[in-house]
Design brief:
Blueprint (H helix, E strand, L loop, with lengths): L1 E9 L23 H12 L5 H8 L4 E3 L3 E2 L8 E2 L4 E4 L6 E2 L2 E2 L4 E3 L12 E3 L4 E2 L5 E2 L3 E10 L4 E13 L4 E8 L5 H11 L1 E4 L10 E7 L13 E6 L5 E2 L5 E2 L12 E3 L8 E4 L2 E2 L4 E2 L3 E4 L4 E6 L5 H8 L13 E3 L31 H27 L2 H12 L7 H11 L6 H10 L15 E4 L2 E4 H9 L7 H21 L1
Antiparallel strand pairs: 1-14, 1-16, 2-14, 3-14, 4-10, 5-8, 5-9, 6-7, 10-11, 12-13, 15-16, 17-25, 17-26, 18-19, 20-25, 21-24, 22-23, 27-28
Amino acid sequence: MTGRTLELTLLDDAVFSRRGATAGGHEGLDYVPGAALLGAAAARLYARLDPDQAFLVFHSGRVRFGNALPLTDDGERALPMPLCWHGAKSGLPTVEACRIVRGRARNFIHGRFEDPTVQPRQLREGYVTRDGRVLRPRRRLRLKTAIDPERGRAGDGQLFGYQALAAGQRFLGRLDADPEVPAALLDRVIEALTGELRLGRSRSAEYGRVQCNPVDTPLEQPAAPDGSDVTLWLLSDLALQDPWGQPTLYPDPELLGLGAGELDLEHSFLRTRSYAPFNGKWARHDLERPVLVQGSVLRYRLATPPDAGTRERLASGVGLHRQAGLGRVWVDPPLLAASDPADAFAEPAPAAAVAAPEAPDHPLVQWLWERAGTRDARRDDLDTANRLAAQIPALYETARRLSATEGGPGGAQWERVVELACRPDLDDDALRRRLFTAQDAVCRSGDEDWGTETLCDGERLTFGEWLQRAADTEGVRDLHYMLRTLARQGRDAVRHREES
């Protein structure tokens, strides 16, 4: 299999509809479908090829116009969010600063959350890079109205809207071909796609200008055979048909050429959709296509391990309509090999070590060094506070189950902890006394709210005792900062529970 890579830059907003219907709410795709590239190449090249060449390129499936998926600003390719990744429905967010936070997501291929009270939520939106960055393409919605040609005014009941990919974004797609396709013919296809194209809907208006250029990127090699369990990550939609030629949404392993075996439904995660693409040449809709949605994860248990040839064939695409971008899969991807998704992300390349110059002996320089040390200490204390705050939703849920009431400190009680931790006149010992041991301590054991019992790591204790243990966590360098950060997240957790 040979492949070429194309980089697309949106010069204008571009509209790629999720379905071909003209009635109802419009929803756009967040990637450039391979069918759009196939149509652009056919418009420029089809009439100049002889019938055999035209069939080979556009109808045989031996040349595959892959979907163009979004690129980050630094040129890193993003892939559809795998549906086996889940976060907690309540509590701290799974994605912060466009990254999946370690410890807040779980790959359900390898097991569920250890805490049975956590309600999982499937990660469905966006794309993920190999180093854990989450990318959500920018989209715009514009309302328009058709003009009545007789009156020259907006037509009655003709309001509609387009959801479009915003201009300025970049996407990366692949053009793959089987060895039977002559290199010279593939070069002609690349030449037809190079330059300015018009893609998507409403191309005659203000939408659809795209700059397309070939770029050099290495072709991914399929993973080596490793046992009889196989995981397929769908990088595009997948259309299948059963042995009688009828569309099916059940991905039996024999339909993919994997031989005897079974789909492990407990560790597979699927979503489906159905659409009828519009063919501009025919001026009509094509047959309806029921497909498995990109991002779905299929887990198979096979009778015999697949050989290298089978894996290579899977990597070249499976199913129907491969020439239009469907059927692209990743076999046994490393990103799905860990129970915590963050453990599978590639580490960024280390920068070359540079010897730091000696700091001048000046009071200002010494003050700056002290500030830098304080910043590093606060970063560590922030990690500690975040780790402890992740336990708070489960504490409340467990307390509710134990007492059958909504017990525990409210937002005002957490705010009192914040106020004390913000006081510079209290040292660490004084802060602990005011919080835990004084007669009028905020978190004293006899308090109605802080004295509510819950469970933590199988041990029964009150909320006040849990917070006191948090304050005694080993390695905390700025107790005031850690406690007020933790208390603010506790306050936010309470508000979230009240709103939901």
